[in-house]
Design goal:
The chain is of the alpha+beta class. It is 29% helix and 36% strand. Strands 2-6-5-4-7 form a five-stranded antiparallel β-sheet, covered by helices on one side. The chain has a four-stranded antiparallel β-sheet with strand order 3-1-8-9.
Length: 194
């Protein structure tokens, strides 16, 4: 009998205020795209997709998240105050047929966090039996899927998102679409789950 698996990923998980601001700032572009809007409660920025993981490995992933959350290079990237991601552009990613909100800079604390998670998981892959998706990180929030057209106006009012932690998230596919649930949250600068 094989062990049950969960489809999981590490993500920046916004609070309700940031989610509402993102949905409001991008509403017109999403509506004009003809795509299937991502429900507001599912808006997030993936740091590292892990895929299907056996349930017995979830505590190991939580331990990795805790170690990365307390890592000195991430804390140093934070500086004196909580850094922000600023989403200020809507882009159509033609290959994936998605509409996304993006940030202007490809580097910064979120990038450092994604790299730290990837590096730690690469070191532990042989022990954990994982094959994480190691595509280069680019901060984005998927707004709509199966996009059929793109409006000329892809501007959005800037949305600031304070980067103070991240989460280990499970993805389930129901008849209504993807459903995400936070399995564990991590606060940057603290070596334990939130």
């Amino acid at each position: 009998m094989s062990e049950p698996t969960r489809r999981v990923f590490f993500a920046l998980w916004p609070n309700d205020e940031v989610r509402a601001a993102l949905a409001h700032a991008t509403h017109k572009a999403v509506r004009a795209s003809g795509g299937r809007p991502v429900p507001m409660h599912n808006l997030h920025a993936t740091l590292l997709f892990l895929g299907s993981v056996v349930e017995s490995r979830l505590p190991d992933l939580i331990a990795v998240g805790s170690r990365v959350a307390s890592a000195s290079e991430i804390i140093a990237a934070r500086g004196e105050s909580t850094p922000e991601l600023i989403f200020e552009r809507v882009e159509f990613w033609i290959k994936a047929h998605v509409l996304v909100a993006t940030t202007p800079a490809p580097t910064g604390p979120a990038h450092a966090l994604a790299l730290a998670l990837a590096a730690m998981l690469q070191r532990e892959t042989s022990c954990l039996g994982l094959t994480p998706d190691l595509k280069p990180f680019r901060a984005h929030v998927t707004l709509a899927r199966k996009v059929v057209r793109v409006s000329r106006a892809l501007d959005m009012r800037a949305v600031c998102w304070g980067l103070d932690g991240f989460a280990l998230v499970e993805s389930r596919t129901d008849p209504e679409g993807a459903q995400y649930s936070v399995l564990e949250s991590f606060v940057l600068g603290e070596g334990h789950p939130a």
